[in-house]
Write a structure and sequence with these properties.
The structure is a homodimer.
Chain A: H1 3-15, E1 22-24, H2 28-36, E2 42-44, H3 47-51, E3 56-59, H4 66-73, E4 82-85, H5 91-100, E5 106-107, E6 109-112, E7 133-137, H6 144-156, E8 160-164, H7 166-189, H8 193-196, H9 201-207, H10 214-223, H11 225-247, H12 251-274
Amino acid sequence: MGLLGGSVTLAILRSLSGVKTIGYSHRPSTRKKARLLAVAHEIASDLYQSVKGSDLVILATPIYTFEKTFGEIADSLANGAIVTDVGSTKVLPHRWAAKHLPKGTHYVGSHPIAGSEQRGVEFARDDLFEGADCILTKTPNTNASALAKLKKFWSALGCSVKVMTPGRHDKIFANVSHIPHVTAAALVNATKSDELKFAGKGFIDTSRVASGPANIWADIILANAKNLNAGIDKITNELAKLKKAVNTGKRNHLEKLLNSARQKRTKMIRYKINKKEVIP
Amino acid sequence: MGLLGGSVTLAILRSLSGVKTIGYSHRPSTRKKARLLAVAHEIASDLYQSVKGSDLVILATPIYTFEKTFGEIADSLANGAIVTDVGSTKVLPHRWAAKHLPKGTHYVGSHPIAGSEQRGVEFARDDLFEGADCILTKTPNTNASALAKLKKFWSALGCSVKVMTPGRHDKIFANVSHIPHVTAAALVNATKSDELKFAGKGFIDTSRVASGPANIWADIILANAKNLNAGIDKITNELAKLKKAVNTGKRNHLEKLLNSARQKRTKMIRYKINKKEVIP
């Protein structure tokens, strides 16, 4: 029951009126906040009770907590239960689910591309998934009916659903999400605090994601280490190209590199506008 | 008469009602747009006529055009005229002004920390400078009365004015503005177009400045080459630290690096909120 977990139940309350929601947190303070904000029909203080008899169980913790949780809930899951998560990497969750979840239950990975640099159930919103992409991940062992149900579920919450393998997912999101995060952190760390007083809107936007919770992002980054490694090399290489153009004073070359970024980004924004994704 | 030039005259029209404004552009199409949008009292098609008799002349072109323009307007400037600019680097403009502007005229550098990734007079806004910082740059040769007048001018347009040397300015803004630009460009260039379709709000924000006009940014970056060089090294070094933490799987170290960025950015945002700068 954090920003994402709370937003899922709030979105269900808004869009799927017949569905009963149960939220769980191991923290009493979070459960108290979740009850005050009424983010779910019921806020359970017992993990096993919270998943018992549920048709759909959604993990919304830091990624490296999934393995333990899969093991803990295994015995309480109903036959036919669908288990998913909202984690930002998918290879490891699939591996852990295959290892710990019992036969007769069905794991499918979910990654709704929504959230913010905020954390905590007090930032949960019932419209967080409206217009967002949601990637579902499947392997050759994924149950087709469970996948179809989960597609309907996220679509009902306002998502545009895409399906891919966990491997492809992790590669793409290393590049469009985890590397930008690492880069934003590097940018802030490279800048002195007394210089940051002069930062304008450009720096504020460029660095926004670096305000995301460090424990959750450490999990994401380590769970996608191989792709992160390659991605950091790529961006370092692009920086080296720009540095070379600066140091040799090759204006044409520098302008070409900047223009290439500009045009590529414009193409991306156009694609998003055509898809009617909200543009900030 | 682009985004910045047009915004200066619009802001004058709003806040300094007794002042007559003359805009100039060498492009007939820009002059036509500027006239249609009525961004200044008069839109001149002759550079010399546009500065003749003016108390204050403000250059708002790409930086490397300043030197030529200083030379071109030198003979038309009134005695006592103040010349400034809105360029993002200040060392070179001071050098060129000292070389080309006649005695009896006074150059002071201005850098209003405002703008956007858009370009063109059609994006000019009369409130662009409201609540923005404006850095004025001075050397031991700067005329104190001209500096005082310019302080009053930018304050009247809504800016919070700070004064520093051109050298300090260029170092600070390499780190808080030019390096973020270069990093955003590297980020986009390092990512494939078909992957960018999956970009979320994080990538869109992190890369926004990369949509800025390439010619203007090539000028800024080349005019601040030495600081850019050092800045690219610093961010590359921070990326290498993060990569090492990822590859050695040192979770504590990775989380420490991410947390340091998070805390530093929070401190920056708190400073801006206390200063009542607008936060996006």
